[in-house]
């Protein structure tokens, strides 16, 4: 990996995590020496992209926050980033897409084609800086009640706004997938909103890594069969993959 590519990868993760990243952790993640990472951080500090800390760094674009949202974004970071990169390839020039506020969807926002003219709708305020990095993307923020811990908008106002819109592609996540292929979230309000979001897409794409099969949630909002495509990561049990492949197209990616 070239130094410029490695430095951009460091920045992407810092922007997503919004918290300190230690030199030793960066070195392990990128499989290089701590000395190499310190040189990368010197470059990033000189151009104003990061702030150095004792033993690490934080992103200079905004104050680092140890929030529930950024903890979710950082969990299984490499898996989610691989899914986000693959999902971005589904978008074509002129498309109107909706990206929901999920932590995996955040990685899609980070990998939008900078040269492609598209219309991007979202209820996530945390994704705004990432989407704005694609200068040809027209950004529309769909309003509602502000959820402080998740940096997103929701509630009845968002439901009303969504009912007036349609999209070429809707990108959605999930908190868990059970063995019957049912996608679940943790609360009824999220389930109601997600159902409305799904109904507005000509194509519906699920972004969820394979570990979601081991998670638990209680409120169902859809089945795998309701999606046109599920982008996930390598690691699905063979029996589950065979079963779910009869319900929807599945594309596995490697981190």
Number of strands: 15
How many H/I helices?
10
| Range of strand content | 25-35%
Shape: globular
- Fraction of residues in helix: 25-40%
Order of helices and strands: HEHHEEHHEHEHEEEHEEEHEEEHE
Ends apart, CA distance between termini: 15 Å
Q: Compute the gyration radius: what is it?
A: 18 Å
Protein model, in words:
The protein is an alpha/beta fold. About 35% of the residues lie in helices and about 25% in strands. The protein has helices spanning about 5-15, 25-30, 35-45, 70-75, 75-90, 105-110, 130, 155-160, 190-200, 240-245, and strands at about 20, 50-55, 55-60, 95-100, 120, 135-140, 145, 150-155, 165-170, 175, 180-185, 200-205, 220-225, 230-235, 250-255. The strands form four sheets. A seven-stranded parallel β-sheet has the order 6-5-4-9-12-14-15, with helices on both faces. The longest helix is centred in the first third of the chain and has 15 residues, at about 5-15. The radius of gyration is 18 Å and the shape is globular. The model has no long low-confidence stretch (mean pLDDT about 90).
């Amino acid at each position: 990996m070239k130094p410029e590519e490695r430095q951009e990868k460091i920045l992407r993760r810092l922007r997503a995590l919004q918290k300190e990243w230690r030199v030793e952790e960066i070195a392990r993640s990128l499989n290089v020496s701590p000395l190499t990472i310190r040189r990368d951080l010197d470059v990033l500090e000189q151009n104003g992209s990061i702030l150095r800390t004792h033993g690490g760094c934080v992103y200079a674009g905004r104050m680092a926050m140890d929030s529930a949202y950024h903890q979710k974004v950082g969990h299984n970071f490499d898996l989610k980033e691989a899914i986000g990169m693959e999902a971005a390839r589904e978008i074509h020039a002129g498309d109107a897409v909706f990206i929901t506020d999920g932590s995996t969807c955040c990685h899609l926002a980070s990998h939008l084609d900078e040269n492609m003219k598209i219309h991007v709708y979202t209820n996530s305020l945390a994704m705004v800086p990432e989407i704005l990095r694609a200068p040809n993307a027209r950004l529309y923020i769909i309003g509602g009640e502000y959820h402080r811990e998740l940096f997103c908008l929701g509630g009845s106002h968002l439901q009303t706004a969504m009912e007036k819109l349609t999209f070429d592609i809707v990108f959605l996540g999930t908190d868990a997938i059970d063995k019957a292929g049912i996608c679940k979230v943790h609360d009824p309000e999220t389930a109601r909103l997600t159902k409305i979001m799904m109904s507005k897409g000509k194509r519906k794409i699920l972004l969820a890594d394979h570990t979601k099969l081991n998670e638990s949630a209680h409120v169902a909002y859809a089945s795998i069969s309701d999606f046109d495509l599920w982008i996930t990561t390598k690691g699905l049990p063979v029996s589950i993959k065979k079963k779910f492949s009869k319900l929807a197209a599945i594309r596995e990616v490697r981190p």
